[in-house]
Amino acid sequence: KTKQQLLMELGELSERNTELEALAIESELARVGFERSDTFLLKVLETIPDLFSFITRDYRLLLSNWHGGYEYVPEEARKGDPFCYKAYYNRDAPCDNCHLPEVFKTGKPLIKEKLNPRIGHVEIRAYPIIDESNNVILVAEQIRDITKRKQAEAALINSEQKLKAVVNGSPIPQFVIDRDHRVAYWNKALEVITGIKASEII
User: Fold this and answer.
1) What tens digit of pLDDT does each residue of 123-137 get?
2) Are 128 and 108 in contact (CB under 8 A)?
């Protein structure tokens, strides 16, 4: 080969080497960027008091903050990409009436309440994560412990039932109105003296 040919080849090799170095730098930046994004996302999730997870179509947990009353999940069960039903409920198969297939199928968010025997009442919110081709690739799941809220609701219903029993059982004609001046209770003694049934006025 002539000196000129060698110099040309050397120049081409140099350019190719520069290109490879640039690609390597871009790849490393992408890797570091992803790791930083992943770390940042985990730190954000840790600030959420609810359980928040990203779940695949085959029930794998890609990421979770392990909160929301699920602290009993042992550390070894969190490693890798565990199945959500195994990590959260120690089951060997998906939960009965699991909401994930529906979200993957419809591509629509879903909200439901469920009784978790280990925690109590929970509210589940599942959001589809959709790619550029409009395919659901993941589901972001948020689970909130609503046991105290359900207990408060039950206590309120019980209190209202007791009030209704007292009003209805009283021999004194009486009724109860709400803050909008609508009749909330109308007892039997009042029905007798007015001839108006509670069902007609409430």
Assistant:
1) 999 999 998 888 899
2) yes
